[in-house]
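Feature request, filed as a ticket because there's no other form

It would be nice if the structure record came with a short human-readable summary line next to the tokens. Right now we just get the raw output. Example of a typical job, pasted below so the devs can see what we mean:
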Amino acid sequence: MAARWREMEGNLLIAEQLQYNRVELQQTVDKGVPSLNTEQRVVFDAVINDAMSCDKHRPGHAYFVHSAGGCGKTYLCKLIASKLRAEGKIVLCVASSGIASLLLPGGRTAHS
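Raw output as currently delivered:
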């Protein structure tokens, strides 16, 4: 089903996701990934590998990142979203609160 999204016309959410500057996003990733700590890098690699291997026969997964405040969750999520968007993927960042959703590029609250 994901492959058909690109064929849909008039869907503003999809159009918005496909308008990112992919070169700029890749530069952000290239600068940011080396600064990830070990745990962040494990999560980054797992999510990216899973997302890049998705197709119409094997859909992707939802991921929930949880840890104490100040551990770099937002930074990690921004890098994951940047990497996938740089690859032309559609990414939906969802948070449970309005404040958290504002911190993520293209973020939305779960109930919106």
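Something like this underneath would help us a lot:
The mean pLDDT is 81.
The longest strand covers residues 94-95.
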